Amino acid sequence: IRRKVTFTGSWSVLLQGAGFHSAHTHPKGWISSALYLVVPDEVAARQSAAGHLALGMAPQELGLPLAPYRTVMPAPARQVLFPSTLWHGTHPFTEGERMTVAFDIGPAA
Fold first, then answer.
1. Pairing of strands 70-72, 79-83
2. Within 1-109, where are the H helices?
3. Are the CB atoms for 96 and 20 separated by under 8 Å?
4. Which of 25, 55, 72, 106 is 20 to 30 A off residue 91, Cα-Cα?
5. What is the mean pLDDT of residues 14-21?
């Protein structure tokens, strides 16, 4: 069976010093995307896991001792696609800024 798909959402995010995303999902999408445009210097220098996208990271408030399935180091022009229902968030970075453009694809109404 073929189903029509569409963009179910799109947005951009500018995070600055100590910025991060809490673990969350995108329930209206099937596939989610993150395209990195700008990353902090400490991330670009690969000094630590700062600023990395953590896939499969459970929300802290659930108290589950689950490590992410995978982490992805952001880099300018790197695009990451992942299932929208997979918990995901980012590790904080200390200074600078990170800019991303993101979208979800899901079933058409």
1. unpaired
2. 41-44
3. no
4. 106
5. 89
Please give the model's pTM, rounded to 2 decimal places.
0.87
pLDDT tens, position by position, 34-62: 999 999 888 878 778 888 999 998 888 89
Structural tokens at position 7: 């963009």
Which whole-number Å values give the CA distances from 109 to 5, 8, 10, in the listed order? 9, 10, 16
H/E stretch holding 101 reads strand 97-107
Percentages of the chain per state (helix, strand, coil), in multiples of 5: 5, 40, 50
**Predicted pLDDT at 2:** 80
Residue 5: CA atoms inside 13 Å, Cβ hemisphere, count? 12
Residue 86 has pLDDT above 80, yes or no: yes
Distances (CA, A) of 97 to 5, 13, 23, 31: 33, 10, 19, 25
> Count H helices, E strands: the chain?
1, 7
